[in-house]
Amino acid sequence: MIVRILGEGQFRVDDSVTAQLNRLDTELEAAVEHGDEAAFAAALTSLLARVRAEGSPLPPDILEPSELILPAQDSSMDDVRKLLTDEGLIPG
Amino acid sequence: MLMKGTAARMGVMKRVSLVFKAKANKALDKMEDPRETLDYSYQRQLELLTKVRRGVADVATSRKRVELQMNQLQQQANKLQDQARKALSMGREDLAREALTRKASAQSQLDELQVQYAQLQAEEEKLTVASQRLQTKVDAFRTRKETIKATYTAAEAQTRINEAFSGISEEMGDVGMAIQRAEDKTAQMQARAGAIDELMASGALDDAVGGKRDDIQSELDMMSASSDVERELAMLKGELTAGAPKQIEGSAANGGSQGAQQAPAAQRAEGPFAPPPPPQQYAPPQQNQQQADPAPQAPQAPQTPQTSQTPQTQQTHPAGLPVADLPADQQDGDGS
User: Fold this and answer.
1) N or C: which end of chain A has fewer CB within 10 A?
2) Rounded-to-integer distance, Cα A5 and Cα B211, Å
3) Over the stretch B101-158, which tens digit does the pLDDT of each residue have?
């Protein structure tokens, strides 16, 4: 599975890590929904750290879309909200 | 409602990737012939590359400007420190305090700039890496594009084009956001740098670097230039004030038990500075007193205030003040 961290690039992550990532992602999403800035920062940091630790950077000459895309490390909660509502194009 | 629920369960990662894919699909849908997409996209990629390189250059320019300002502020802080030291050595604590206050202001600007500088540097590095990565992907895309166009018909090419396009499109979206972020930071930085330039030009942190309104330095210079005059003036003042009290002391001490020993020294000190007439007038009474002779007829202040002679003595006495102290001295003198 290919995961992109915005501002950093793409990583190839083993599918076995998916469950861990999903759990952290759920925490991240809950933090955004509740407007909990501290929980958001903590969840984002853990999530990105996991991807970096488990994944290996994808060579830059590979043209493959990512299955998952993560906000940049220095994103604020507001940035993430904007990212999710970009042009209002969130498919169901 | 259903859409929202589904999206919520999907998580942030998936939703963001879908936003990106949706954008790519939207761009693809605009093209009649998928192979057109390849050329059009390639043009956009080249434009983005130019843009990201310009972004790197802009951030670098901004960083250099901050660096320059940091150097200027550091020079100012150093200079103000020197001025404070110099002012203090000249006994001008007020000037020293003013210089140190300005130095603190320069220092706090400097501290802020250091943070900004680090941010710009990080931004520049990120953008440089992004630029190199995009360049590699654009090269890969061009190769792929030529292969697809040479190998497949429009219908056959569709899937492969979509793959190549969505791969590069995601990268372009990422780089585009990075450029936007860098532009925002650079704009903030330029506004701040402009404010600091204005502050420095206004003289609020002033010093010799600007040279325009360095009031502290000009005052220090003025003080140096006039220090000789001041020193001489102070010396003269000292001589004058040293003369007057001693004269009084001398006459006052005459009433004391040690008057005989102190008087000659006092007279010598009076020497050339005392106005000629008084010594002559007072010489006889002083001599009388030195001999410890209670001379009732002598016109001296130490005599009992009640006597009829006292008013006359006081009139001729140059300083009326000591008279009040004299009775005590006189008593001592009488006792011995």
Assistant:
1) C
2) 51
3) 999 999 999 999 999 899 899 999 999 999 999 999 999 999 998 988 888 877 777 8
Report the CATH number of the B10-166 domain.
1.10.287
Single pTM value for the model: 0.63
Mean model confidence pLDDT for chain B = 73
ipTM: 0.86
In this prediction, residue B15 has a pLDDT band, given cuts at 50, 70 and 90, of confident
- The total of other beta-carbon atoms located within 10 Å of residue B250's CB is 22
- Three-state secondary structure call for residue B48: helix
For residue B168, which residues of chain A lie inside 8 Å, CB to CB?
63
Tell me if A1 sits within 8 A of A13, measured CB to CB.
Answer: yes
How far apart are the C-alpha atoms of B313 and B320, rounded to whole Å? 10
Q: Which candidate, B31, B41, B22, places its Cα nearest to that of B140? A: B41
Residue B95, both tokens:
């000037």
* B99, HSE (Cβ side, Cα atoms, 13 Å): 27
Length of chain A as a residue count:
92
pLDDT at A9: 92
B-chain CB neighbours of A22 within 8 Å are 11
Domain limits, chain B: 10-166
- Out of B2, B14, B181, whose CB is closest to A68? B14
